[in-house]
Write a structure and sequence with these properties.
- The chain has eight helices and 15 strands.
- With 263 residues, the protein is of the alpha+beta class.
- It folds into two domains: 139 residues, Fructose-1,6-Bisphosphatase, Chain A, domain 1 (2-Layer Sandwich); 112 residues, 3-Layer(aba) Sandwich (D-Maltodextrin-Binding Protein, domain 2).
- The strands form three sheets. An eight-stranded mixed β-sheet has the order 4-3-5-6-7-8-9-10, with helices on both faces.
- A hairpin with a 5-residue loop joins strand 7 and strand 8.
- Helix 1 runs antiparallel to helix 2.
Length: 263
């Protein structure tokens, strides 16, 4: 699957960098407007999976109202793949070069099997399966490098010009705080070792944004938890359930959960 996901990403990246239209083409099940570029990239991913996937594969995508089974292979197991074709849609429409793809395959017991995330503009990619994690094609056993400074990537509401007061105690624990507007891309920064933590405490983050990072956390000694440090456990592959999320190195998680009673 590593080669297949890499091939899909490269094809979609060429389309994204060419500059796809942003006209409205519909509304997804969450009530968000679907743009042409969302639909186009989603279709490219599904088309490639339909041709190349050797298993029975069900699609779970925020751009689709149903979860279709796109491949039927005799004597093959059944899996589901969660797709976020363009994470950072607002960035893309604003020509802000921070937009990502996220793919994650789960078995029928909701266990992660393999996953992929890639930043279309930086070309950074991560592939993970049950045995290993690869960053930009190289197998890694820990985050790619150690941050020069303690960087926190923090998601806040688009409508708030300043950080809410309840976040200040967490923010003050870190040297630098940034918000880039594409969850999968920001979580890649933690895998890369350029950020100590990614935090989204709004309770609005949905599974397609962070699904690729369960296996990365397991293999790299990172933590994927809620704001109180409790491991994220899936009970469904719903893309409407909201989560509070921390993806961090253990030391950074301690800084964040130190203030959990006040959050």
């Amino acid at each position: 699957m590593r080669k297949l996901f890499g091939s899909i990403f490269n094809e979609c990246r060429r389309e994204i960098l060419s500059g796809l239209p942003s006209r409205r083409v519909g509304v997804n099940p969450k009530g968000d407007v679907t743009k042409y570029f969302d639909s186009r990239i989603n279709g490219l991913i599904i088309g490639k999976l339909r041709k190349k996937t050797p298993v029975n594969l069900r699609i779970v995508s925020e751009e689709l109202s149903e979860n279709p089974l796109i491949t039927v292979r005799k004597c093959a197991p059944y899996y589901s793949i969660i797709i976020d074709p363009v994470d950072g849609s607002d960035n893309y429409m604003a020509k802000t070069p921070f937009v990502a793809m996220a793919l994650a395959v789960f078995d029928d017991k909701l266990r992660p099997v393999c996953s992929f995330a890639g930043n279309y503009y930086t070309s950074d990619t991560m592939y993970a399966d049950t045995k290993a994690v690869y960053f930009n094609g190289n197998r890694i056993k820990r985050p790619f490098r150690k941050p020069a400074k303690d960087l926190l990537l923090l998601s806040v509401s688009d409508t708030r010009p300043k950080y809410p007061k309840k976040f200040i105690s967490v923010i003050n624990e870190f040297d630098i705080v940034r918000s880039f507007g594409a969850t999968a891309g920001e979580m890649l920064y933690v895998v890369k070792g350029e950020a100590s933590a990614f935090v989204d405490m709004r309770g609005k983050l949905t599974l397609e944004n962070f699904a690729p990072f369960f296996l990365a956390a397991k293999h790299l000694g990172l933590e994927l938890t809620d704001e109180k440090g409790r491991a994220i456990e899936l009970r469904s592959l719903s893309l409407t359930k909201g989560y509070k999320l921390v993806f961090a190195a253990p030391a950074a998680l301690k800084k964040i959960t130190r203030h959990s009673a006040r959050l």
